[in-house]
Fold this sequence. Notes:
The chain is α/β, with parallel strands linked by helices. About 40% of the residues lie in helices and about 20% in strands. The chain has helices at about 20-30, 45-55, 70-85, 100-110, 120-130; strands at about 10, 35-40, 60-65, 90-95, 110-115. Helix 1 (about 20-30) links the parallel strand 1 (about 10) and strand 2 (about 35-40). The termini are close together.
Amino acid sequence: MTPGRTVRVVVAKPGLDGHDRGAKIVARALRDAGLEVIYGGLHQSPEEVVATAIQEDVDAIGLSILSGAHTYLFGRVLDLLREQGAADVIVFGGGIIPPEDVQQLKALGVREIFTPGASTRDIVAYVREHIRPVRT
């Protein structure tokens, strides 16, 4: 990480899914690893997620999706980031995502997907290794 600025991450639960235990666990693990974490809460629209990311000047967005709407929600967040001139914000996520959809999401621009059973250590290691502060 760049000296003087900690990586900032929004962890969000877009869509209608009401189960946020995993998102809270990931947010806590990232925070405990020394990152700045903004937890967006449940039932966020893609527009709200991106607005928070821009307002909070984050380096990454971590989305947790269990509802089955992952292709739409990830895609919409990526489109909005591009429209808002924030395409440098890295998007990663996790949830119940079929293996055949993971490559499709990565082709859209999602950097990494963590499925059930992924260790918080692996998620923290990924963020530390692949995400850098984009703004100073």
